[in-house]
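Action item from last week, closing it out:
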Amino acid sequence: MAIVVMEHPQYPGLPCFALTRRVSRMSRHAGQYALPGGKLDRGETAQRAALRELEEELGLSVTENDIMGCLDDYATRSGFCITPVVMWAETAADIQPNPDEVAEVFYVPLCELENDGLIVLEPGESSERPVFSIDLPTIGHQIYAPTAAMIYQFYECGMNGNSIRVSHYDQPRFAWK
């Protein structure tokens, strides 16, 4: 999964990251908000997969030199293990969403993550694993773990230098499929 940081296409000098809404006809996680990503091909590393998926979904080509690092793996209720790969892209001008996978692209300013009310925790299936979400004004409502948890870890680790873990947060039931 790619967390790609770039300059906002409409506001020069404003750093942002790309978040997508998946098309409604997808077989898994249709219509959900997600970072660009997908399954690894045989013999592929998480980093190579993130670069490939970024190009397949958004038409954005960056290189291994643009990778800044990886966050913690997140095991999902739907049986996947996601490795968030943080990378830099110079500009969003080259983004051309793949209409077979991406319904919409949102450019979320990093400053939106500097919100005291960002995190929302709701009761989960067990009291030890609350359902995690964040409220992003750019999209107008909450997004949920795993995407929200990975964005939050990126914010805390990458922007604030805090070492935090997020894999203990749960997902809402609709994301289990």
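Closing note: The first helix runs from residue 46 to 58.
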